[in-house]
Specification:
about 325 residues; alpha/beta; Rossmann fold; 7-stranded parallel beta sheet; two-stranded parallel ribbon; 13 strands
């Protein structure tokens, strides 16, 4: 049995797609808390055995483990979190992104189940310390969401250093800017690719933020854009190694293409994919993002490639061409 938290979200639902279509596995428990009225569509084509609300998961795990007819949980893939970079209630972030993750880690350690979880490139802050996943101790995130993810990364590494119980196989994934199908429910936090597509279809223009930082022209803020099926494929790579008792080094890994691209490139590509002449409108950045906005991100990938993951990542143009707005 494989448990996927955030299983109705973008990355989680595509991981479920991989398990159904690539590994022919349907023995999954999907865990989430659906708040968007259409988000169930991310699951309608998936085959799985149970759906649980996030607050039901730990009682279910404990009850299953204690039952004589229990089903072995081989791995928990923990993609669920508060992912809004604008979340101001830090208590919510602590409970959802730190304590909940710690509880799942501890359960996996005690029950010999693998644990794979979502970290974030937001942990890198303004990039002053670089984007190398080999060293993360001195990072300074720009917002509470990024800090909550960084705290858990550090906590996990501390468990290892202190020789405390850890899951037999585990990995944290610092996802860079993921885009693709199954993200329509994320609203403001959906990718720029998603917003560009909808804005252009509705208004004939795409809105991008003006630059408020010297050295960056309007629309030339840079991100490492990752097609969601590539992000999910990396997670499944680690899962397969654990299921097959193969060695995949435990640790924290960047998930990105290794090539930063401008928001202007993305918006232009989206409009060109629709067969239209690009038309961009530059707008002021909202006040709640100013000073907390990353102007450049680019993943290093040597550590990931060192695990034997050799599949290429989609280029931005290829990912845009394959992009679906609704569910797959």
């Amino acid at each position: 049995m494989i448990v996927i938290t955030g299983g109705a979200g973008m990355i989680g639902s595509i991981i479920a797609w991989h398990l159904n279509t690539k590994l022919n596995r349907d023995d999954m428990v999907i865990v989430d808390r659906i708040t968007h009225e259409d988000q169930w569509q991310n699951l309608v084509k998936r085959q799985y055995v149970q759906y649980l609300d996030k607050d039901q998961l730990l009682p279910w795990l404990e009850g299953n483990a204690a039952s004589k007819a229990h089903v072995e949980v081989e791995a928990i893939i923990h993609m669920g979190a508060i992912s809004a970079t604008t979340e101001r209630d830090f208590n919510k972030l602590v409970e959802a992104n730190i304590h909940y993750s710690q509880n799942l880690w501890t359960w996996c350690a005690n029950n010999k189940a693998s644990f794979f979880y979502a970290s974030s490139a937001a942990t890198y802050g303004d990039g002053e310390q670089g984007y190398d996943d080999a060293s993360i101790e001195k990072l300074r995130p720009l917002n509470g969401y990024g800090y909550s993810k960084h705290f858990f990364d550090q906590w996990a590494l501390q468990q290892v250093r202190d020789n405390l119980p850890v899951p037999p196989s585990w990995a944290g994934f610092k996802f860079f800017n993921v885009y693709g199908p199954n993200e329509y429910h994320k609203e403001r936090m959906a990718s720029v690719a998603f917003h560009s597509y909808n804005q252009f279809k509705e208004t004939g223009t795409v809105k991008l933020f003006k630059s408020h930082k010297q050295g960056f022209d309007d629309g030339m803020q840079l991100r490492d854009f990752v097609y969601v099926k590539d992000a999910a494929a990396v997670v499944v790579h680690f899962l397969e190694a654990a299921l097959n008792n193969k060695s995949c080094a435990n640790g924290i890994y960047n998930i990105g293409t290794g090539k930063a691209r401008a928001f202007k490139d993305l918006a232009t590509g989206v409009m060109a994919s629709l067969g239209k002449t690009p038309n961009i409108t530059y707008i002021d950045m909202p006040e709640d993002l100013q000073g907390k906005y990353q102007y450049f991100t680019e993943a290093t990938s040597a550590k990931l490639r060192g695990t034997g993951y050799t599949s290429p990542f989609h280029t931005l143009e290829d990912g845009i061409a394959r992009k679906n707005i609704r569910a797959v």
